[in-house]
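Friendly challenge for the regulars: who can give me the structure tokens for this chain first? No prize, just bragging rights.
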Amino acid sequence: MAWLPPKMNGSKAPAPPPADEITKEIRKLNFDDKPASNKETKQHQQDQPSAVTLPQEFVVKYLGRRDAGGLWGIKHTRKPVDEMVAQAKEMKAGETLPFLKLTVSEKGVNIAEMPQNINKDFEGGFYNIDVISYGVQDLVYTRVFAMIVVKEEAASLKTHHPFQCHAFVCDSRHNARKLTFALAQAFQQFSKEVKGKANKKPKKFAIDLRSPEEIEVDLKEADSEA
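First reply, four minutes later:
Bragging rights claimed.
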């Protein structure tokens, strides 16, 4: 059985498995992400962002980051995710993905390494909610959560691409969806805050709460109408 990151339950996390097991697991991402059962689909449809209590913590593996073509929409995350998964599948024996804890609060997203992490190639720290423009559960790799971050200093200086897609592998499809809902709740609370402050200019952001199956159907319909 392929190794999965442990869930956050307050207990001490077990020691990480050999690197080759992690590599094998990421290589089988496309096989692990099977279509949801009818029961799972119904559960996803019943879930509501309002039911999520913040903060929420998730143990994830960091796929990496890529430039994104725009602020919102799965069309701007799909290609970067494909590229990152392809790169991860090429990892050599002994190489691992960064093993991280991602915390979603009403203020934003904090990324920190787990004690067992040995790969330091990741951008940790805190991402304020107003620099995150989009979040979605990927429709192909359904355990992958992707978000677009706006690099405001890059946009003003025009020296670097202003939009970056960051992707994370969750331990289950359900938790990838739960992570999406957690960010939706953070967006919702931030919106209420902004509306209560007349001198604060609202930021534009979006969260895609459709299931991967619903996104795929909508994309096919859009293609047929084009």
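The beta strands are 56-67, 99-105, 108-113, 125-128, 132-137, 144-150, 163-169, 206-208. The chain has seven helices and eight strands. Your move, everyone else.
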